[in-house]
Specification:
The strands form 5 sheets. Strands 5-11-10-6-7-8-9 form a 7-stranded mixed sheet, with helices on both faces. A 4-stranded antiparallel sheet has the order 12-18-13-14. By secondary structure, the chain is an alpha+beta fold. It is built from 6 helices and 18 strands.
């Protein structure tokens, strides 16, 4: 058979094939890849001995490749047919299973429907039977309840009749009691009217008696007030010894400033005997008071004591207040209220007691230093904040001297001085004196001396002004220090009685 050669397009090896293999797919004996044998073309091989051997070898290789390819194709076709057969068998099984399941479901549904209808019929018959039994039972119970209600109603009617009878008896008894109670109330009202009438008469008599008593008390208070208003004030220590309480027989009236009201007391004095103290009141009856309690009030609050036949009110200040030091207040103050307290001052002003003979010596006590006497003040004259500052400054400035210049700071002394003469001269201290208005013509040195004298005169004036400013600043600082120290200081007040009331400061 004729052969031809062609080249593998993959590896370039020359392959010999028979003419009958044209158009077939063979496996390359060199690279093992499939190639398509060309239908036309190719180079006929020379029929040499070695070519024949290669051809035989090539034919063997081609035969092997073809057989391998055919075997693979047959295996693939057999596998495909086996898959198709398995798929067809599985489909037949599924169809048969689906038909069986549907048949079973249909049978079950038909059986369930039949069973359900049977059960429903039996349940309905049972319900009918139960309803009938329940209806019969309810009818029996209703009949029994009607009988019981009728018996209960009968019992209640009987009890209601009994209660009506009892209530009628109770109403009759209550009516009888009400009649008796009305009789007792009429008798009690009559007795109360009589008692109220008696109380009214007693109140009228008591009111008349109280009115008379109040009138007498008011007259007594007015009489005491007039006695105080006509008197002048004096110190307790100035009361004569033979006119004091317990040394003479008579009546004394005392005013004591209490916390809420002024106490008025009538003190009876017996020579070398015990005193008798009575507290007077406009609203209540006179009340005796223990002498020790009275003396305790006088010691605590002070008092104004007036003999019944005297024209002077003797002031007893609270214990420990005479000559006491008081911290300087931030506003105005009256020296009398500092010494005696506001209560006694209010009593003196209330009764218009004459105070023209009272004089107060007031001194300022700084925190450091000596006391500064501020002067004399009348009883009702207030000492204001500004007035206090002025008085303290005036008293402090009396003893104040400008500070001396420091030793290290030498005073300026001019070396050329102007004077009112006519010629240039030299003084005893060797200082030249230059005339301000020379007579006639001067030498060339006069102008230089005038310029130097004018310069030194200006320097001396500036030095003196600086010293005056320093002295003013020192004085201002001293005044500020005094004013700033006033809140830390105190006032000391002493009272004196002048012999002539008109000479007291107003």
């Amino acid at each position: 058979m004729a052969t031809f050669d062609f080249t593998c397009p993959q590896c370039g090896v020359t392959i010999e094939a028979e003419e009958s293999y044209r158009g077939m797919v063979l496996e390359c004996p060199s690279c093992g890849k499939g190639i398509v044998v060309p239908r036309v073309g190719g180079v006929p091989r020379p029929k040499l001995k070695h070519v024949a051997q290669q051809q035989e070898k090539q034919e063997d290789l081609n035969a092997v490749a073809i057989r391998r390819r055919l075997a693979e194709q047959e295996a693939e076709e057999a596998a495909g047919k086996a898959k198709e057969q398995a798929f067809a068998a599985k489909a037949r099984k599924q169809r048969m299973l689906s038909a069986v399941v549907k048949t079973v479901i249909a049978v079950v549904l038909v059986g369930a429907a039949a069973v359900g209808i049977s059960v429903w019929r039996r349940h309905k018959a049972e319900q009918e039977r139960v309803r009938e039994e329940e209806r019969q039972r309810m009818e029996a119970e209703n009949a029994l309840e009607r009988k019981e209600r009728e018996a209960e109603w009968q019992k209640k009617r009987t009890e209601a009749q009994q209660r009506q009878q009892e209530e009628a008896e109770k109403r009759a008894e209550a009516e009888k009691k009400r009649k008796e109670e009305r009789e007792r109330e009429r008798a009690e009202q009559k007795r109360l009217r009589e008692e109220r009438e008696k109380e009214r008469q007693d109140k009228i008599a008591a009111a008349e008696s109280l009115k008379k008593e109040l009138k007498e008390r008011a007259e007594k208070f007015d009489r005491i007030g007039k006695l105080f208003s006509k008197a002048t004030v004096d110190l307790w220590k100035n009361m004569p010894q033979d006119a004091r309480l317990g040394t003479t027989e008579g009546v004394f009236y005392s005013l004591i400033p209490l916390d809420k009201e002024h106490g008025v007391y009538e003190v009876g004095s017996v020579t070398n005997g015990p005193m008798r103290v009575v507290e007077l009141s406009k609203k209540e009856a006179d009340e005796p008071l223990d002498v020790a309690d009275y003396l305790g009030l006088v010691e605590k609050y002070g008092c104004l004591c007036l003999p019944a036949d005297g024209g002077k009110v003797y002031v007893s200040v609270p214990k420990g207040s005479a000559g006491k030091q008081y911290t300087v207040p931030s506003s105005s103050v009256e020296p009398s209220s500092l010494l005696w307290g506001e209560g006694l001052c209010a009593l003196i002003k209330r009764y218009s007691i004459g105070t023209q003979n009272l004089v107060y010596d007031v001194s300022y006590l700084p925190a450091r230093g000596k006391a500064l006497p501020l002067g004399q003040f009348a009883f009702g004259k207030p000492l204001g904040r500004s007035e206090l500052q002025s008085a303290v400054l005036a008293a402090a400035l009396k003893n104040w001297h400008p500070p001396k210049a420091k030793a290290s700071k030498k005073a300026f002394r001019p070396t050329v001085v102007f004077y009112d003469g006519k010629t240039i001269k030299r003084g005893a201290d060797g200082v030249p004196y230059v005339p301000r208005s020379p007579a006639g013509r001067m030498g060339s040195s006069y102008g230089k001396l005038c310029d130097e004298a004018r310069r030194q005169e200006e320097k001396l004036s500036a030095t003196q002004e600086s010293q005056a400013d320093e002295a003013a600043r020192a004085k201002e600082n001293f005044c500020e220090s005094v004013i700033s120290s006033i809140p830390d200081g105190s006032l000391q007040v002493f009272v004196r009685i002048t012999e002539d009331g008109d000479s007291a400061p107003q």
